[in-house]
Write a structure and sequence with these properties.
With 266 residues, the chain is of the alpha+beta class. 21% of the residues lie in helices and 33% in strands.
Length: 266
Amino acid sequence: MELGKPSHYDSEYNPARLYAIPRAANRKDLGLANALPFFGYDLWNHYEVSWLNTRGKPQVATAEIMYSCTSEYIVESKSLKLYFNSLNNSRYGSIDELETVVAGDLSRCVQAPVTVSIRPLVHGTHLALSSLNAICIDGADIEVDEFKIDPTLLKANGGAVSETLCSDLLKSNCLVTGQPDWGSVWISYTGPKICRTSLLHYIVSFRTHNEFHEHCVERIFMDITRHCAPTELTVGARYTRRGGIDINPVRSSQVPTVVNLRLIRQ
């Protein structure tokens, strides 16, 4: 495992750099030992993709990587960066060939189908900045005494509504290195009206919490489900990039539509 260690960069293609992390341990902590109560996906954007064409000319692109939350494993992000770096001096005849190689390697790593879309920068319209179509709750006036996750902070005390709320104040830390993970979280739900002040207080309480991106989103989903009882719920987060990679998990009570936005911090 590469986390927390000096890195050796391969001069040739090396799929062995990929490292899988099981989801099971964190889900057990959330009481998710059996069938999952949500659908969803993990969507990664990698902005530092490069390889050589058959004549040795460097190519640059971005990659969109996606796999289901039902996969047994996630790929560790530093290992993904080191894997992509091993492609820098490898020759491929086409983008389709490279996509096939990368998708195959990642699918074997997480033991589930992975889709990969590699786009040259000339086709970069998909990278245009956007914003969450949601009501930002960050203006709520809250006083914070300590940063410790407390699901009982969540309150639903109004009549049934359908709305989408968001906050840019999500911060947690990498489970292994302790490095900060900054994100924007959005919550789309139908059900008893969630108290926005209590929701913001809860989101801010993650500030010193150590957990991977995917598991933070699953924790938020489960805590809102248990304490606010929505009839429908979707929780997603857009994390800022680290090492050229951003990670964007989505969990939902319904099969979610895949949307890849790029926020200003990404």
